[in-house]
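Repro:
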Amino acid sequence: MEYFANEKREEDLLAELTSRIDSYYNYLNSSGRVNLAKRAFKEYYINKYDAPQVTEDREGRPKINVAELQNSVQYTMSLIANQQAAYTPLTVNSDSKSQYQTKVSRNILDYYTEVGEMDSKQREALEMAIVTTECHGVLGWDPKGGEDYGVTEVEEGEEKREEVVPQGDITFSYHDITDIIRDVSNRKQGNNDWYIIRRQINKFELAARYPKFKDKITNLKTEMDELKELNYDTQVLDQNSEMVYFYEFRHAKTLVVPEGKRVIFINEQILDKGKLPYPNLLVFKIAPKKELVSNFSWSNVYDQIGFQQAISKFYSIHLANIATFGYQNVRVDKDANVSVNDLASGIRLFQTNTGTKIEGINLTNIPPEVTNTTGMFEKKVEQLSGLNSVVRGNPEASLKSGTALALVASQAISFLSSLEESYIQFQQDVATGIIDLLKVYATTPRLVAVAGKANASIIQTEFTKDDIDGISRVRVQRANPLSKTAAGRVELAEFMLDKGMIMPQDYLNVLTTGQTDSIMEAETGEVTLVQEENEKLREGGDAPVLESDNHKYHIKMHSTLLNNPVLRYEPELVDSVLAHIAEHKKFEGGGASPAIPMPGDAAAGGGAQPPAPPVLNPQAGPPLAPPMELQGGEQVTLPGMPELPPGTPPEMMADYEQLKG
């Protein structure tokens, strides 16, 4: 029996792939997964499917929808993805070439983040994952994309024509659960040997890419199968649309399929096939929570759906009661001289037989159980989503200090740590995949341009694959939970202002913009500079010392090189480090002494230098203190002291006689 991916005949391979597609959709529907995802999708866009206005239920009572779920998801996204990713390309070595490649790679990733809209697409993928339990990002290479590089001659029969040769470029797309076909019996998360990716494309664009099958492709009909669509809407089904589905099969490089496999196909035709042209499958997943013993995931959004429906019902009860009984009702005696015309518009009149008093009737009172239950359910949504009142912008009255607000906000972020870890891993995988693709396909010089610091300039970088071949992977730095909230950033700014680390203008900038980049740039810039200088010193190089350096910090951090038990026995390195520290001490005003201050020393803290200890004579015993002086210069003597033993050095005898008086 042949492994399905190794089928030689195209008809057999196409039949195997089609069979796996049908099996996947049958599973999604029989297991209820796709219906659950559809339900979450509908509840998330509740006012899209049910008009965003007051409507009527089946009994004719007013009805209103409360988008509690969308509010919860948006706040979650603001905590997880409120800052642009900070990419750190990693190399195997730490030489100057590797450092250069790191900078080039960082500029490349910044380019694809800004110009290629990678950041916005990743945020959309995060939103899809939160709502529908998972989302997959897919990287690839489009040989017909990118800038035009040159011109080549193409023969068509007896004629020749010129054809523009593009550089090619990276493609990135994200897909919901209905677009990523996989082996549902595989219960290992993220360990799939193959995927079939379903995509939409204009059929004439697809025909231009595969002109050999132009007729079959252009005859495709626009289809929308309810069983295969997350956002199934018959109203958007346009029979005149040119959008059609095509599929891409990717098989990893394994022992069974050593070179991997890639097949592009439509329902009845394979358009292209060959070995996998990528280093790996380049399919990456975001999931709020992994489902145990399963290839699928879970989201706590599913747990909130019922509560949103109940909250909408409670608010509809309030609305119906006010709409029905909100107009004032008046009771009068039947023989009272009051007519309906005497009442204001909208006020209803009730006539009774007893009494003559005119009084209002209040029918709008709602049982406290309804109101209390509404608040209880809203609180339950907060608990299920992990979003407390501080994160939602409505802190409890007992939380007044910035420290308390920041602490409570950080607890919400800690609750979402599994989603944050998944999102960071997703960003790292995508960034590493971009570099891996360019290491293979960037054979011609390519130019990327990104904004410099504070958008003050444009940084242009030209590169080929040889300029990034030393990059092994990309890491995304994870921020402290406090720095992800407005309360935490303000608390940080208050601390730095109190310590004199920033100016009042910087503090106001944080309050108005919520961004801490401006106040952190100076501190983090100094840290990066010292790290780079230490690398140069370790390699035997030198680094310039400028008057504007933070000399106390530089001295402290450069001295850590000599704490390495291996490096401190290298005389040339020790001399180089001590000489560099001496240059800093000159600017600091402490002389060129190579002594290394330790944390807590008076010199390190900015105080006066302590007096130098006297030179010891190993044969003379402990040194004597110099004569003490009173104010005005009068010396203190110590009469009645014992005699010194024979053999005492003359210089110590002189000091002794002076003390003795």
